[in-house]
């Protein structure tokens, strides 16, 4: 199950360097490419506003 970034995202960029497969791209809000995401969860703990969670199918 891939991760997603919701509207709480402030665009701080803390998650970008944490993704080992570069699945996160800048935008409003930032986006996670579900096809690239390996479900490692490395980005989750770096988000200061808790905007990253597992995507529900």
CATH class: Alpha Beta
Provide the number of structural domains: 1
> What spatial order of strands do you see in the largest sheet?
1-4
Terminus-to-terminus distance:
8 Å
What is the total tally of β strands? Answer: 4
Share in helix? under 10%
Ranges with pLDDT <50 over ≥5 residues?
Answer: none
User: What is the name of the CATH architecture?
Assistant: 2-Layer Sandwich
Largest sheet entry: 2 strands, antiparallel
Mean pLDDT: 93
Secondary structure tally, helices: 0
Radius of gyration: 10 Å
Helix/strand class: mainly beta
Q: Provide the CATH topology.
A: Alpha-Beta Plaits
Task: Tell me the fraction of residues in β-strands, as a range.
Answer: 15-25%
Task: Characterise this structure.
The protein is mainly β and 57 residues long. The chain has one domain: Alpha-Beta Plaits. 0% of the residues lie in helices and 18% in strands. The protein has no helices and four strands. The strands form two sheets. Strands 1-4 form a two-stranded antiparallel ribbon. Strands 2-3 form a two-stranded antiparallel ribbon. A hairpin with a 5-residue loop joins strand 2 and strand 3. The model has no long low-confidence stretch (mean pLDDT 93).
